[in-house]
Amino acid sequence: MAEVLLAYLGRAGYQVTWSADGSQAAQVWQRTVPDVVILDIMLPGLSGLELLRRRRRSGDHAAVIMLSARGEEEDRLVGLETGADDYVVKPFSPRELVLRVEALLRRTERLGGAQLVNSRLEVGELIIDAAAREARYQGRLLALTMREFDLLAFLAGRAGQTFSKDELLRRVWGWDFGDTSTVTVHVRRLREKIEADPSDPRLVLTVGRSGYRMARADELASGAVPTDLPT
User: Fold this and answer.
1) N or C: which end of the chain has fewer CB within 10 A?
2) Helix (H) or strand (E) holding 11
């Protein structure tokens, strides 16, 4: 499978480095700066999930696509909660994987500034620098994955506007269809990083059963942020 993926990605114009086990992958990942990492969960030695946990704890924000033979929802959620940006279940089409790599890279380029109204966004004490792909809250630099940054920047650039999970999948992930639990997991992870109390959010608000929006600056300034918004 690795040889097939190397061939497909090489033909698409990518420079690819391949590691056969988790320990070797950890060394390669540490000394290089990959744009995208395709990571199998069932790696020999060090599992893909444990490798991803270590890299995220070290502050690495490379985009990660996880591969797994297990397609149950719980397995997908564990991968996403660990810090993966996308999840592909075996068997899969190599061409599909190449397209997912391309989609991740396009999101990075577009959210580098072109899709946002401003390259610098401020919502209360949240400051987003789209060009540098950095976000700070109360002056503290946030350790965000690529997809977490994309979601935060998208909502902050449209503060006060509500989006359903399906809309966010389409406009942030670039997917016309998919599992909306992906959005739920990323919102939960964002709240853990930017909310004083993730169970009582004041920045990323839930609207109805399936929508989210960023609080407006005037709501934050007045302290009158609604908590249980109707659809």
Assistant:
1) C
2) helix 2-11
